[in-house]
């Protein structure tokens, strides 16, 4: 088995991790606050944002130069050391500038500081990876490396604080300290690798990595995997899959099968689940190595890239990347990778996994077959969910419902893989329900008509109403524990409250997505009033669920902040198109937006949350401008005043006035935004959920017992 002592005690790996955190933390801080800093030099907001991009363009060039130099010379350590030295020089220079220095001098040094930020990072990753003695160690190294980069983002988000304005003296002092530490660590690393090279030459070993040479010198023999011999049938099947590009799923990966054959491991380590994937044998991290174009076994081996070497671990890595990709502003990259993962799944035959009711998990062969099949189902199910939930934004989908036969993952516990009743909570309960919701999206898309000849608004509205009822039926039929809180659930399943809250968010968001084709029209056409009130109720449900998630300190995931953005758009339209802006309902809506903005502002390293705050600030500001414009109008009757207000809003949207205000607004993360709610207590709207639904409003969630998702029942 792979021991944990290597990861913890290897000094070079620890130095790489420590050095990465110290060296990258200033990068996160500068890329986030550089526009604010440049603006303090006397430049306007738009001009400051444009000027900051100069350093980033230079950084692109430097990254290419660093990679080229490292490949040509093979001196990755020197390239990294030089890169850190350059960054340290400009950081120290900027910190030493007098406060009254000229704007041009400050901008020049800051630009070079941002340009040299992290240009050595990719070479550092290559430096760490290429010195691994085996693919298993490389996988673990890269996993630690990625986690270190994420930790650096958390640290960097805390460097520039509002109480340190306007010059951020304390923040720059900390940056100088971090970069000095990084420079010292890089120097120590270079010395350690130099000594390893000396040992390599003395040992007479001309091939292999430096770690292998040092292992030879010290006569260390470490067994990373104690694999049992594979049965002849599995060997033959794996060879067939490699040759034919895998029409069957029986051989997912040698590591998976070998791991399953190890009877000493707990059963849950052999089953990679949708919510808690297994990290055994470095399989997941090995996938990320594939994503970077590195072979897990050799260097520059033909067919080692994920696009030509179909493996289930690549699919798992891509699926898992969705957890953070959107928050890190990598949505387009994630969508592209999901498309690639779907094709890899086709190559592996994951879309046509056959169910065999005769399999008995109590036998050794049946246990292995069940695990293999279940891993395939869960991977495919996640691809289907991600593909279908992109439909409202891309207007298309890749997986046609007619073209796959793989069933949902079974409702089971990983410990025994026995099929359970639907009302029995398991780790698969949530993704199974989510998959049923996702299955509505292709039908919704196809029901809008072909792109070249879309259906009329009346036909679309009828189709939307049918889809709305379909979703309500799915939620009525969902397991009760995902709809209603019980008294003993926290003791039995700690994840259940978070799953139910997330499902509430997702269901409300999907209601809005279903009504999206008619949503904008509903604010102007009385015939679509039900769509308007339904979406407003769904948006308030999202805000309410998000408030509970925030109060319970649930680990945030990207859908929480993303769905709040969706809700903010709906409430924003409601505020702009409503007739009265001073009644209690308008104050209630603005208070909900304010609370959501405060919660989003507290999220760190989350681009979606920052944009959500900017969106809410923009909408509330635009509403204020709208009220002023309407007050200046002179119309004899209410009807003409309503028409004039609609024209103003439509014009602001048509000429991108709102978009321009949003793009010009820097995301506020220092908590200094405050809305005057006219004496309305923001906690009032956080009371009983029944208060959200007025007479005449649709019972949005009541039809499937989710109006009271947080009340205890016997």
Automatic annotation (TrEMBL):
<dbReference type="InterPro" id="IPR007219">
    <property type="entry name" value="XnlR_reg_dom"/>
</dbReference>
<feature type="transmembrane region" description="Helical">
    <location>
        <begin position="172"/>
        <end position="194"/>
    </location>
</feature>
<dbReference type="InterPro" id="IPR036259">
    <property type="entry name" value="MFS_trans_sf"/>
</dbReference>
<feature type="transmembrane region" description="Helical">
    <location>
        <begin position="46"/>
        <end position="70"/>
    </location>
</feature>
<feature type="domain" description="Xylanolytic transcriptional activator regulatory">
    <location>
        <begin position="307"/>
        <end position="444"/>
    </location>
</feature>
<feature type="transmembrane region" description="Helical">
    <location>
        <begin position="77"/>
        <end position="97"/>
    </location>
</feature>
<dbReference type="GO" id="GO:0006351">
    <property type="term" value="P:DNA-templated transcription"/>
</dbReference>
<dbReference type="GO" id="GO:0008270">
    <property type="term" value="F:zinc ion binding"/>
</dbReference>
<dbReference type="InterPro" id="IPR050613">
    <property type="entry name" value="Sec_Metabolite_Reg"/>
</dbReference>
<feature type="compositionally biased region" description="Polar residues">
    <location>
        <begin position="292"/>
        <end position="307"/>
    </location>
</feature>
<feature type="transmembrane region" description="Helical">
    <location>
        <begin position="12"/>
        <end position="34"/>
    </location>
</feature>
<keyword id="KW-0812">Transmembrane</keyword>
<dbReference type="GO" id="GO:0003677">
    <property type="term" value="F:DNA binding"/>
</dbReference>
<keyword id="KW-0472">Membrane</keyword>
<protein>
    <recommendedName>
        <fullName>Xylanolytic transcriptional activator regulatory domain-containing protein</fullName>
    </recommendedName>
</protein>
<keyword id="KW-0539">Nucleus</keyword>
<feature type="region of interest" description="Disordered">
    <location>
        <begin position="283"/>
        <end position="307"/>
    </location>
</feature>
<feature type="transmembrane region" description="Helical">
    <location>
        <begin position="142"/>
        <end position="160"/>
    </location>
</feature>
<dbReference type="GO" id="GO:0005634">
    <property type="term" value="C:nucleus"/>
</dbReference>
<keyword id="KW-1133">Transmembrane helix</keyword>
<dbReference type="Pfam" id="PF04082">
    <property type="entry name" value="Fungal_trans"/>
</dbReference>
């Amino acid at each position: 088995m792979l021991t944990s002592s290597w990861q913890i005690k290897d000094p070079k790996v620890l130095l790489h991790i420590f050095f990465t955190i110290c060296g990258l933390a200033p990068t996160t801080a500068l890329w986030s606050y550089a526009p604010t800093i440049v603006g303090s030099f006397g430049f306007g907001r738009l001009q400051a944002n444009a000027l900051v991009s100069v350093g980033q363009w230079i950084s692109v060039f430097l990254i290419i130069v660093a990679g080229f130099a490292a490949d040509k010379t093979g001196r990755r350590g020197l390239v990294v050391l030089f890169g850190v030295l350059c960054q340290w020089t400009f950081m120290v220079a900027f910190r030493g500038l007098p406060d009254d220095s000229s704007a041009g001098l400050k901008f020049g040094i800051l630009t070079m500081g941002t340009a040299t930020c992290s240009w050595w990072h990719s070479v550092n990753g290559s430096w760490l990876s290429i010195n691994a003695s085996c693919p298993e160690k490389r996988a673990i190294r890269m996993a630690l490396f990625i986690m270190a980069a994420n930790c650096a983002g958390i640290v960097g988000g805390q460097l520039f604080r509002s109480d340190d304005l306007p010059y951020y003296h304390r923040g720059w002092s900390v940056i100088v300290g971090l970069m000095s530490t990084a420079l010292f660590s890089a120097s120590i690393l270079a010395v350690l690798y130099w000594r390893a090279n000396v040992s390599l030459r003395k040992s007479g070993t001309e091939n292999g990595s430096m770690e292998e040479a040092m292992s030879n010198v010290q006569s260390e023999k470490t067994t990373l995997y104690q694999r049992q011999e594979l049965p002849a049938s599995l060997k033959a099947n794996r060879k067939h899959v490699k040759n034919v590009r895998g029409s069957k799923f029986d051989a997912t990966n040698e590591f998976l099968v070998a791991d399953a054959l190890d009877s000493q491991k707990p059963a849950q380590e052999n089953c990679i689940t949708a919510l808690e994937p297994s990290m055994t044998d470095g399989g997941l991290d090995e996938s990320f190595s594939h994503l970077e174009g590195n072979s897990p076994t050799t260097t520059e081996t033909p067919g080692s890239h994920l696009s030509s070497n179909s493996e289930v671990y690549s699919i798992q890595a891509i699926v898992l990347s969705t957890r953070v990709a959107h928050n890190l502003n990598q949505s387009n990259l994630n969508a592209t990778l999901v498309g690639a993962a779907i094709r890899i799944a086709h190559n592996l035959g994951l879309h046509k996994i056959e169910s065999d009711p005769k399999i008995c998990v109590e036998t050794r062969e049946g246990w292995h077959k069940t695990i293999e099949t279940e891993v395939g189902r869960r991977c495919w199910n996640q691809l289907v969910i991600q593909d279908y939930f992109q439909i409202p934004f891309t207007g298309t989908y890749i997986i046609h419902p007619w073209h796959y036969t793989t069933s949902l993952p079974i409702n089971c516990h990983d410990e025994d893989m026995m099929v359970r009743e639907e009302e029995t909570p398991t780790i698969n309960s949530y993704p199974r329900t989510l998959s049923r919701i996702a299955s509505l999206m292709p039908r919704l898309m196809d029901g809008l008509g072909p792109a070249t000849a879309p259906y009329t608004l009346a036909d679309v509205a009828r189709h939307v109403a049918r889809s709305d009822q379909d979703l309500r039926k799915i939620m009525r039929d969902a397991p009760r524990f995902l709809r209603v809180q019980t008294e003993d659930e926290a003791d039995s399943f700690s994840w259940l409250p978070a799953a139910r809250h997330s499902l509430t968010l997702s269901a409300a968001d999907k209601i809005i997505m279903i009504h999206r084709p008619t949503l904008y029209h509903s604010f102007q056409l009385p015939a679509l009033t039900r769509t308007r009130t339904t979406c407003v109720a769904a948006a308030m449900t999202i805000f309410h669920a998000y408030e509970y998630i925030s109060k319970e300190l649930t680990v945030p995931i990207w859908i929480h902040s993303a769905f709040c953005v969706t809700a903010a758009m709906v409430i924003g339209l409601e505020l702009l198109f409503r007739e009265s802006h001073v009644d209690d309902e308008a104050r209630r809506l603005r208070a909900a937006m304010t609370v959501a903005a405060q919660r989003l502002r507290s999220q760190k390293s989350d681009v979606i949350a920052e944009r959500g705050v900017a969106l809410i600030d923009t909408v509330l500001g635009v509403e204020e401008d709208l009220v002023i414009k309407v007050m200046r109008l002179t119309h004899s009757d209410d009807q003409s005043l309503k028409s004039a207000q609609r024209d103003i809003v439509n014009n602001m949207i048509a000429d991108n006035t709102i978009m321009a205000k949003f793009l010009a607004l820097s995301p506020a993360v220092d908590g200094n935004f405050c809305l005057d709610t006219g004496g309305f207590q923001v906690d009032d709207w956080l009371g009983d959920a029944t208060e959200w639904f007025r007479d005449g409003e649709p019972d949005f969630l009541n039809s499937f017992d989710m109006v009271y998702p947080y009340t205890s029942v016997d």
